Structure formats: structure tokens, C-alpha cells
Amino acid sequence: MGTHDEEVAALAALVARAADDDPLEALAALAAARRELEALEALAVRRARVRSASWASIAMAMGVTRQAAHQRFRLSRWGDR
């Protein structure tokens, strides 16, 4: 990933493409936006954990249960279990 501004611009471009009249183009843009958002979300969770945020506080910020957040991200590539 690039800089924060580049990531936001790329995501905004994908969201704009999601309104395309061609439904296949819109679907492709939505799928790409979902992948980008998932990558950004995983990075934010990693940063929160590095800064000693609890799973409960991460879950609250995400609007999910602590168990859901922990289960989804605990076996991440950075080895935070």
C-alpha cells in the first residue's frame, strides 16, 4: 500500500466506479473496494494491537463483539494471538 492519501484516493475512485451503468463494472469495483477496505481494516487492527489496545476496545470501535474481532484477526500474519 502507498501513502494514506493515495489509499483514500484509490478507494474513492473504486467507490465512484461502483456507480457505473455497467453492472459488471460496478461489481468489479465493489469487489476491489471490499478488498482494499479489508486490508485497511487489518492494518488498523494491527496498529491498535501494537499500541496495546484490547480486543474489547477494538471490537467496540468496529461495532462487533470482542469474540468476533479476536476470532477474525487473532491469527493474522503478524502473529498476534
Number of strands: 0
Task: State which percent range the strand residues make up.
Answer: under 5%
Structural class: mainly alpha
Instruction: Give the overall shape, derived from the CA principal axes.
Output: elongated
- Rg over CA atoms, rounded to whole Å, is 15 Å
Uncertain runs are none
N-to-C series of helices and strands: HHHH
Most strands sheet: none
Query: How far apart are the termini?
Result: 24 Å
Structure description:
There is one protein chain. This protein has 81 residues and is mostly helical. It is 72% helix and 0% strand. The chain has four helices and no strands. It has helices at 4-17, 23-50, 55-62, 66-73. The longest helix is centred in the middle third of the chain and has 28 residues, at 23-50. The model has no long low-confidence stretch (mean pLDDT 88).
Q: Brief description of this entry?
A:
The protein is mostly helical and 81 residues long.
Write out key terms for the chains shown.
single chain; 81 residues; elongated; 0% strand; 4 helices; mainly alpha; 72% helix
SSE diagram, text form:
Elements lengths: L3 H14 L5 H28 L4 H8 L3 H8 L8
Helix pairs in contact: 1-2, 3-4
